[in-house]
UniProtKB/TrEMBL annotation:
UniProt-listed Pfam families: Acetyltransf_10
Keywords from the named record: Acyltransferase, Transferase
PROSITE patterns: GNAT (PS51186)
Domain N-acetyltransferase: 3-153
Name of the protein this chain belongs to: GNAT family N-acetyltransferase
Catalytic activity, EC: 2.3.1.-
Tagged with keyword Chloroplast: no
Length: 153
C-alpha cells in the first residue's frame, strides 16, 4: 500500500482529517462529538496520511505558539501533539510512527524544542518506543484514562 503523509491544506483535506477523527474517536471510542472538535482545530497544523487513491488513513495535529503555551502550562518552546488517529485497517503498518515524526518535524519548523502529548493509557507503550517519557498521574479525558508524556526534539 502506497501511503503519503503531508500537512493538510484546504477544506477537502480538513474534511478527511475530520472523517478519520470521527471514525476513531467518536465511533470507535465513544468520545462525544462536541468534545472531539475544539477551538484549537482552526489554528493547528494538521497532518494527514492518504493512500494512493487519496483516501484518508490517519491524522494528527500540532498546537504551537501561544495556544501551546497556554495548554502546556507556559513551558517555552514546547509544542503539543494531539488527536493522533489511524483507521483500523491501517494500524500495525508503521503509519502511526510516520504521523508522529511528521508532527514532530512540523513542531521543529515552528520553533519547538520539546513535544508534549496526552496519551491514552493503552497507547503508552507506543509513545515510549518513540522516545516519549510519561510524567504525572493518570487522569481522565472524555472518559478515557490518559497520561501526559514529553520528548525533547
Amino acid at each position: 500500500m502506497t501511503v503519503s503523509v503531508r500537512v493538510a491544506e484546504g477544506e477537502a483535506d480538513l474534511e478527511l482529517v475530520r472523517a478519520v477523527r470521527r471514525e476513531v474517536f467518536v465511533v470507535e471510542q465513544n468520545v462525544p462529538e462536541e468534545l472531539e472538535y475544539d477551538e484549537y482545530d482552526a489554528t493547528s497544523v494538521h497532518v494527514l496520511a492518504v493512500d494512493a487513491d487519496g483516501g484518508a488513513l490517519g491524522t494528527g495535529r500540532l498546537i504551537f505558539g501561544d495556544e501551546a503555551l497556554k495548554l502546556t502550562g507556559g513551558v517555552e518552546g514546547r509544542v503539543l501533539l494531539g488527536r493522533l488517529a489511524v483507521l483500523a485497517a491501517a494500524r500495525g503498518t508503521g503509519l502511526g510512527v510516520e504521523l508522529v515524526r511528521a508532527i514532530e518535524a512540523a513542531g521543529r519548523e515552528r520553533g519547538g524544542v520539546e513535544v508534549e502529548l496526552h496519551a491514552q493509557v493503552q497507547a503508552l507503550g507506543f509513545y515510549e518506543r518513540l522516545g516519549y517519557v510519561a510524567e504525572g498521574a493518570v487522569y481522565e479525558d472524555a472518559g478515557i484514562p490518559h497520561r501526559t508524556m514529553t520528548r525533547v526534539l
